[in-house]
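Sequence only, no structure available. Ideas?
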Amino acid sequence: MAGSYREQSAPGLESSNVRTSNIRAGPPGRGPEVGHADRLHTGARTALDRLLRAEHTEPYAGEEVDWPSWRTFVAALRDPQLTMAGLRPDLWAVGHTTTKTAAVIQQDGLILADAPDPPSLSTLRNWLTAWENAGRPAPEAYTPTLVPAGDDQGLAGWHLRLSL
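Reply:
I predicted one. Tokens follow.
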């Protein structure tokens, strides 16, 4: 079932509960199922596996993370590699993933990465520096704009854009 939780263990974490709309939990003892889990081949399963098996952890060196400010700031960046994951119960993580690297910062300030210095960790650190340099803007500081969306197949909708 999409969006379900399944216990996993990861180095440095006592247990991890996974919540993502792209992964379907498999039977106990087996990893997430591939079939419907990532039928669009987005790399979601690979990114999730990398984060659950994080080989590198470090505490965030800045002040305590202001979660509403941080998640709004990175959403405004509109980076296609922006990732949000629930790796543990009641503890969200936001960061950068690709098909080859992954790095996130959790609400508690713990940074997880698949290696000590992957490109995703460099990107995450750059985002954190930019956020700090911007003065950790409050979500209310952003101006929202709805932009019509459409593609060559005629699908339409709206994109929400945030600007300071």
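Residues 51 and 117 are 14 Å apart (CA to CA).
Hope that gets you unstuck.
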